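Support request, please re-run this one:
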Amino acid sequence: MVDEVKKILSHSSGEVIADPELCFSLIKCYSRLYKGGCSVRTCKNSLSLYYKILQKNGIEMATINEQAKERTCVPAFKGIKYISRAAKYFNADLLTDRDAIFLLTHKCLTEEDFIKLPTGWNTGQEDCILEIADLLAQGMSVKAIKEKYKDVKEIGGKECTKELWTELIKEARKLNEVSK
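Re-run finished. Output below.
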């Protein structure tokens, strides 16, 4: 996509509009990068506007598009979503792992907004499981562990409930069994 944008920008606006192949490429790039692949207007004024927008930040958007292909996260939402806390629109197809981690960290999105979370996103539960596993290995009882962490209200954005503690302790025990 970056090469395609560079090819379009290597010509003047008038040349792009006059050449059917370049014009189609302009429409395709603009639609993909800025409209999530939706249909766009094809009149001369709109084509000129698309060209100016590509000049402004088309290479940057194409680079983001390339990075999105290498991502590990899979958003649960489709198309374009306005996230008011970030005051910005995000395209599910172009959401990079870096953007996803930023949005999760700043609580603009939740884990439920993803089918698969991005690599590098640590929910906090992994660290907690490792710590509990270490305490269990040292001989601390489950009751003592719960007492030690009684003031913890949230782990990885989830409220600390009896069910969550049960799940974390179960995972920690599995981890200890595997390491033996």
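The chain has three domains: 2-69, 74-116, 125-179. The chain has a mean pLDDT of 84.
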